[in-house]
Amino acid sequence: MSERDQILARVREALRAPAPFPGHHASDGHAPAAANSVHPPRGGARQWLPQVGPSFDEQIELFAANALELKAEFLLLDSPAELAPRLTRLREAHGWKRVASHDGPLTDLAVTALGLPTLLTDRPYDVNELERCDVGITECDALVAQTGSVLVTNRSAGGRALSVLPPHHVVLAKRDQLLPDLPGAFELLQTRYAAAYPSFISLITGPSRTGDIERILVLGAHGPKKLTILCL
Amino acid sequence: MSTLVQRFKAQAEIVTRDLRHRRLIQTALGNYEIQRDKRKAAFIDWQSARQLAAETKWDALNHLDAHLEQFVRRLEARGTKVHWASTGEQACEIILGLAREKKARSIIKSKSMTSEEIHLNDALEHAGFEVVESDLGEYIVQLRKEPPYHIVFPAMHLTRDEISDLFTRELGSAPTSNPEELTMIARRALRQKYLTADIGITGANFAIAETGMISITENEGNARLTAALPKVVISLLGIEKVLPRLADLALFLPMLAVSGTGQPLTCYNSFYGGPRQPGESDGPEEYHVILLDNHRTRLLADGEQRDALHCIRCGACLNVCPIYRNVGGHTYAATYSGPIGSVITPHLRGLQDWKHLSQSSSLCGACTETCPVKIDLHHHLLQNRRNAARQKPGFLEQTGFRAFAFVMNHPALFRAVAVVGRWLQPLHALVKGGRLDPLRPWTKTREAPVLAPQSFREYWRSRP
Fold first, then answer.
1. Is 0.90 topped by the overall pTM?
2. Which residue of chain A is at minimal alpha-carbon distance from B183?
3. C-alpha to C-alpha distance for B224 and B112, rounded to whole angstroms
4. Could you identify which of A151, A198, B47, B318 might form a hypothetical disulfide with A142, taking C-beta atoms 3.0 to 4.6 angstroms apart as the criterion?
């Protein structure tokens, strides 16, 4: 018998003993079925997670508040024309010399506006070259108001490394990409990708951080020290 | 008494007296509690969320065979190679085999308690491979050649100055007491390792059956780099990590973050479904997933304690445990410390050798109350004690309780003992806690209440 079959056989054998349903003790004498749960019936997580207002204004305000707390920079632009001047200002402020990005309607605009040497990660690239870039500019799948997160996949954001290796990650998003909450983010993944999921999906919530030294917050542990989200 | 018990007691005595340790832990966990409570309060109903999480895990575990098969089918469909290991040695052998096959020189690792459980680093280093931990806390304890102190905060027991000394000694960096500078020293030291490592090894927080994905929760970005840059990536996980649906993560990711670190969500929550797919520009050429049993099925077979496999390794029970906070993480000498470690270690490594962990509890129930997936932790500690006594009754304990039962069942004898006890108690004070005291193990650190001069029966009979 293969190792797989042996383990599965042990699992099946083990499961012959019933286990009490959460909220009950084995000493209650029986293992109640799911229907006997005294607690709320099964439903989605949405009904218990932190509340999110229904309107766009409430949600964008919540996203901005979360970004602030996470020490991410969030800029809501009045018009797409504002993108180029915003980016050039960021370029000057941070002294960007080399940019990494990927093909996309928004990233193409950004790369043109910046006019710097650019590494594109849509096709196989040299990772050492990516490491030398000052900023990674990506698009995303969605923004999540509830947590201030950016949902990316390797298809929407130029691979696995672009959004984590350079010291500054700039996300370009559109207003209609804002989702209210985490269950919404997973619904989006399901509708968009269920036929063939990308091999990498990530919820990015603020710049990289650690508290491993005396539980004191330090940004930029291994990933980006800065996260800028530009919403058009 | 076994050496494990002696070691536990000796170590506990040292650490509980260590004021520096006490200060460090109290500050760190005090801040954690404030943050955690704030995040819990933001939930519409945290208690209902716990129940939903517990029910979801119950479903996952009680149909584990079907979920595992689906998980593996989906993963394999995208070209992932799945390996099964009944024991820790087998899992190490699989990884060593891969390292040899790929002629790996250096291996980068992100945090994985399961790899601690099977002593993977020892096995790899023994076979001549360089292996580097990339999580900052893990990197620090690796440089110190000691196991992680806590399942979420591996270096919580160290001050910044100790870490500075360590870096100066091991990495040749200039001394600094600035946590940010210390973090940047580690960042620079590890950057090259990511870029040159031949193999990346990760753990997993959840295994999604529905879509065949592994979910990894982290703050630093080290796991993302570990799973992005090397040509070969290996994820090692216990078979109990399964969640039925992708959407379940909408509940589990925030609950793990709130319970684990007091964050609403950790910085990176990433889901991996395979190696680089056609049309993708980066990621590993090969992705291996190793499913480990290592006595988890033994715990699964215990219906009464099966919910201990619900554990999402958030560490919340460690953080609230008065024992953990006083004796410290290393005293347990087990991979998994704190209440959850005391519950599962006897199942994973032998009841008689590790039953003392179930004794070292005040049974206050703080662990059960805080557990986000509602593991009945403090009752399981009692059950471990019962099972240990059933399997191998202690002579003194058995005789003592038999005598107690006999006395309690004979009213005349009970009355006599009560009277004799009143006479004997002042005499006992002469030897209390000393070498001549037959009750020394108990009375050494405890005060028995003084027996009342008049028993209730005597009072009842003599009332006017």
1. yes
2. A221
3. 14
4. A151
